[in-house]
């Protein structure tokens, strides 16, 4: 289950349950024997009980204030005292632009989130209950590094179409220069590059970076929905060197025009930096021939429904932006009579997606349930810069298997072995 509540403001989502829906019964092959087991994504990765930044409690235990006057960091340092040691400065243009944008969406975020959370609480969600378990980030499989090393490998077939290889039937797999799929109607547990991964049913993926995207183009498919989660460039990422980033100019090199079907819906995750938002709206979408239609907000809350950051915090906002547009084919008037135009619901502007975020870096909630009404029936969906897989989706990225590693899951049940040769 992904959508808990839906109203005119948006949706309240349960990302943890959505993930688990895919892995209630996974099959694994051990020699000539086949086993099945259920897996759950570890609940502690969504165990956000308190806001990341909270107000200093009053002596009489009044409710937490949202004012920035008494903010404390998670380590307990009084932010006001720490600020006192710094010289006051004027806001730069980016900060001023961010404040203008915040003023425009503030009421929607405040009132819409309150409405969705209150209904969710009547249904038994957002109760503030903690999960058992200690959050431990699994060991990195260095997928991005392996993609870099694999650039010396030749691409199969050149520009010719190459059928996807199967994680279930094929013995030797080339994950870096061929599309790979799980063709089964059931999720499966497989060994890839010496590690165990869970692969959702009817999913396809390509493990590569932007320089090796040709196999995706050769798969012979175009897509009715393309979701992008680019690794945006920013100062903190540059300083830490922990994550790869992609300059905005290189995003224009993505072959979205070749991958999109007529009237394809294109959705891009954007940081709260105004320059990134302007780039998508004013440069990237026009370059791809995508007409801007809407901006939605992903609002991040705790298990009790509180904003993870104070709504009016000058530094961190409790929301991220999604920019939605439709592939434009102005030269083809016949597109207006397409199957999509006959069946799809008009795309609304200013909607909220409210959910408890994952503690894992850049682990976004799935958009498949909320976007389904706005794309054509029997749709083909693609996620770019993906770090996980979804049933009935194609995924591409240099960490596309990251959150499929079995160490992110707990094994729930085992059923009897099936003593027969695998199909």
TrEMBL record:
Instruction: Give the highest taxon in the source lineage.
Output: Eukaryota
Q: Name one GO molecular function term.
A: S-adenosylmethionine-dependent methyltransferase activity
Database matches in InterPro entries: DNA_methylase_N6_adenine_CS (IPR002052), MT-A70-like (IPR007757), SAM-dependent_MTases_sf (IPR029063)
Coiled-coil stretches, from where to where?
none
Q: Where is this region: Disordered?
A: 57-95
Family affiliation: Belongs to the MT-A70-like family.
Record's protein name:
Methyltransferase-like protein 4
State the organism of origin.
Answer: Coilia grayii
